[in-house]
C-alpha cells in the first residue's frame, strides 16, 4: 500500500482552508504544496504565507514541492512545525549539496526532484544525503496533465539503488496519477503518490484515495 499526498494546487483557492480541512479528513498521509515561481516553471502558484495560512486547517504534515530557481534562498520560509519534507529540483540548484544541507539544518527532511528530461543517474552521488526522491511524470508547472509512462523506469531505478546501497529514502511520484494508473507506479516502487486533479475532481474522494493507495 502506498501513501498519498493530494496536491492543493487542484483545490478551490477561494476556500483553501475548508478544502484543506476536507481533504485531510479523507484518510491522507501528507498535503502536497506546489510552489511555482514563473521562472523555473511557466506558472505562478502561491508562496509560504499562503501555506502557513493553512496551518490551522491541516491535520497531516506538509510535503512542500518547490518549483523555483535557487530554492536555497527561500527554504527557511517554508519551515513550520508541520513541514515534513521540502523538495527542490536538481535542475534549479547551483549547489545541490548545500541546498540539501540547509533544509536539514532546519530539522526538515530533504527531497530532490528530477524533471522528465533528466536522467536518474544524476542523483547517484547525493543519494545518501537525500530523504526523498520525487520522480516527475509530467513536465512541472501545471496540474491535470497526461501521465508520462516512459518515466516509470526511474522509480524502479531508485528502488534498486536504495537496496544496493542499503539506504532508506522514500520514493515519490508526481503528475497525472489517479486510480486508473496508480498500480503502475506502485508496482514500480513508489512509496508516496501525489495526486491533484484525480482526487479533487473525484465524485467520491475517499474511494479515489483508497484506490490510488491500493
Ligand atoms: C505539477 C505539480 C503536481 C500537480 C499534480 O507541476 O508538481 O504536483 O499538482 O497534479 P495532477 O495530479 O493533476 O497531475
Ligand atoms: Zn508537485
Subunit organisation of the chains: single chain
Strand order of the largest sheet: 1-8-7-6-5-4-3-2
What's the CATH class, please? Alpha Beta
* Secondary-structure arrangement, i.e. CATH architecture: Alpha-Beta Barrel
Supply the CATH superfamily name: Aldolase class I
Mean pLDDT: 98
Count of DSSP E strands? 8
CATH fold node name? TIM Barrel
Considering DSSP H and I runs of 4 or more, what fraction of the residues is helical? 25-40%
Put simply, the count of helices is 7
Q: Span from first to last CA?
A: 5 Å
- The residue ranges in which pLDDT falls below 50 over 5 or more consecutive positions are none
Alpha-beta classification: alpha/beta
The radius of gyration computed from the alpha-carbon positions, rounded to a whole number of angstroms, is 16 Å
Q: Sum up the overall morphology in one term.
A: globular
Number of domains: 1
Range of strand content: 15-25%
**Ligand types:** D-xylitol-5-phosphate, zinc ion
Main sheet specs:
8 strands, parallel
